[in-house]
Design a protein that fits this description.
The structure is a single chain. The chain is an alpha+beta fold and about 375 residues long. It is about 25% helix and about 35% strand. It has three domains: about 100 residues, no CATH class; about 160 residues, Jelly Rolls (Sandwich); about 70 residues, Phage tail protein beta-alpha-beta fold (3-Layer(bab) Sandwich). The strands form four sheets. It has a 19-stranded mixed β-sheet that branches. The chain has a three-stranded mixed β-sheet with strand order 23-26-25, with helices on one face. Strands 1-2 form a two-stranded antiparallel sheet. Helix 1 crosses helix 4 and helix 2 crosses helix 4.
């Protein structure tokens, strides 16, 4: 296998695991431009059309892999080994993300552009501010890799891949020292707490946490949205507190969406078990379930965990989600305000998969393919036109 083959397959497999960096996603996007350029789209999203999409894309990607990776002189059908099947599966997902999950066919479809193309907005990136116990603030985006600061016996480092990592020394003090990481609109960040717990912060979010967990529990506070992969410790429960609820776990993977402009606080469980407390109300959820807290009441539903955690993997992904909800996500990621010319558009249900790492005009272009809504960009504002 050539170096180019190995590189592309490595990127595809990292994408499939949700581990691809912003730079690697951009590299994949560029690679797929070679066979995306001639595609035309419409919105026949029935099951038969979706099946045909997958068949067309598999054939197209098989041909592309033959030509681009193996250097074949002509396209041909090939039985792929296991590694290539994994790559093709990832490639289908990438291609669907770039096209917004709309049906591909060889006919010309006029597209409504998103306002003036010169007025465009770049996507968000890894941006956050670390506030230490003494009030000192560190802009993480521009900080050099290596040691950022120390808090007692804890060393705070910025790793080569840009995340913040807390390394707890052998002698931890008895007094908790708290730090805060805050992301702006248009920013995300990942950190590893002193106990080994991994946390992904979505845009316009924050987490307040001890530099070292010294007590009988591991308590953190968040605003906005965060995804947790909690290090297991049966003797020290991990708690996530928001303004309206507390989530308690021992070791598990889950997402908490507690934005103040959302109609409900949503806790989505991927692995393990979770108990949630809000006042006198409490509930337990199992993997694949979501607890929605609204008006001091819990409602437990089956969740599409891929939709709920897509942001962590660099995607917008939604299934019959209202346009208003989608636009709130776009507002946070692109740091823009949303204005509606017609309120009827707010509840328009849409389904799609679109990459995070493209200018906002391309995301809006995908949404316009529904032919049910159009947009105009005016500075840092997106106007929704029914």
């Amino acid at each position: 296998m050539s170096e180019e083959q190995q590189r592309i397959i490595q990127l595809l497999e990292k994408f499939e695991r949700g581990e691809a960096s912003e730079k690697e996603l951009s590299e994949l996007d560029e690679w797929y431009q070679s066979f995306e350029k001639d595609a035309k789209f419409t919105t026949q999203l029935n099951k038969a059309a979706q099946t045909q999409v997958r068949e067309n894309l598999l054939n197209k990607i098989n041909t592309s892999l033959d030509n681009k990776l193996a250097g074949a002189a002509a396209a041909h059908t090939k039985i792929w080994p296991l590694w290539a099947k994994v790559a093709i599966a990832a490639a289908v997902l990438v291609f669907l993300s770039l096209t917004g999950y709309f049906y591909w066919q060889n006919t010309d479809i006029p597209l409504q552009t998103a306002g003036n193309e010169k007025q465009d907005i770049a996507p968000g990136s890894n941006r956050a501010v670390l506030t230490l116990a003494n009030g000192k603030q560190i802009m993480l985006t521009g900080a050099k890799n290596g040691l950022l600061a120390t808090q007692g016996s804890v060393a705070i480092n910025k790793s080569a891949d840009g995340q913040v990592v807390y390394n707890q020394g052998a002698l931890a003090g008895s007094k908790a020292v708290y730090n805060t990481i805050t992301t702006p609109r248009g920013g995300q960040y990942k950190l590893t707490l002193a106990d080994g717990t991994n946390v992904w912060l979505n845009a316009a979010s924050s987490i307040h946490y001890p530099a070292a967990f010294t007590g009988s529990e591991r308590l953190v506070e968040i605003t906005g949205e965060a995804y947790f992969e909690v290090a297991h410790n049966a003797g020290k429960p991990f708690k996530v507190q928001t303004s309206s609820q507390t989530v308690q776990v021992l070791g598990t993977h889950f997402d908490v969406n507690a934005y103040s402009d959302e109609p409900a606080v949503k806790t989505t469980l991927l692995e393990g078990s979770v108990s949630i407390q809000s006042g006198l109300e409490s509930t337990l959820i199992k993997p694949g379930q979501q607890a929605m807290l609204a008006q001091h009441r819990f409602k437990v539903i089956q969740a599409d965990t891929d939709d709920e955690t897509a942001w962590k993997n660099g995607m917008f992904r939604f299934s019959d989600e209202s346009l208003e909800s989608i636009m709130r996500k776009i507002s946070r990621w692109y740091d823009v305000d949303i204005e509606y010319e017609n309120n009827d558009a707010r509840q328009l249900p849409l389904t799609g998969i679109i990459t995070h790492f493209t200018n906002v005009s391309q995301v809006l272009r995908m949404l316009e393919l529904t032919r049910q809504v159009h947009f105009k960009i005016a500075g840092k504002k997106i106007i929704v036109i029914k």
